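Could you help me review a protein record that somebody else here produced? Do not assume that whoever made the record got everything right. The record follows directly below this note.
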Amino acid sequence: MIKKGYARSYVVALLTALVLQVPFAILVFIPRSGLGPGPGVLFFVPSIALIQLFSTNGISSAISIASCQTLLTAIPIFWLITWRQRPAWATMIRLACFIGLLIVASTVLIRFERRRGERHSAVQGSTHSAVLGSIERLNNSLAFYQRKYGQYPEKLEQLDFPRDGADINSTRSALVEFPLPMQEFFGFTYSARRSDNGQYSGYELHVDAKPGSWSALYHYCSDETGSIRFSTSYNTCMSGLIIKAQGK
């Protein structure tokens, strides 16, 4: 059971923590010429990092952040208020450990939230990427090649134009001119799938952002169905989100 004096100290600590947030909240809204929130936002970093995990927004997010920050701030305030009831060194150790824990936890949560935000942005922007045109063109050319020659090419280069005026045939079908416009930023990996009769009856096409040229979270893939999928991971692309269905 909580002692009466401790209960009073808890209440005082909560009220003090609530009032303490006011000047920092005001500093958040100091104009910074479009540079984002003011310096007061640093005070709320632990709560912002924690609340963002639950994807709240608007008024509910602000209330959640204020409530969470009040509880977090009340803990060291309570220790300071009741410092006479324990050795001074014990209070200092508690405060140091608490601050260290907040810093570590905030760092981890911020990195996690930033990564999650990048993934969300990648998914949202996946349908607007210029690379989609190149993938669709390859799919259409591969489908035409299959109709003309009875199977898919073994290598993607077989879609290219012949060299030095050579004849157009299955080794150089003159369907796509390489390099593709987005090959500077994306790597195109093609693998033909051989059936039991020895012919190439299907394929997988992976299009992945090159390191340093684009976000590493962009992974596109397709196959003989013509549908284009997207995922933020290469390993899950073939079962990822369909961003362009066949014929649409």
Notes: Residues 4-124 form one domain. The two ends are 67 Å apart (CA to CA).
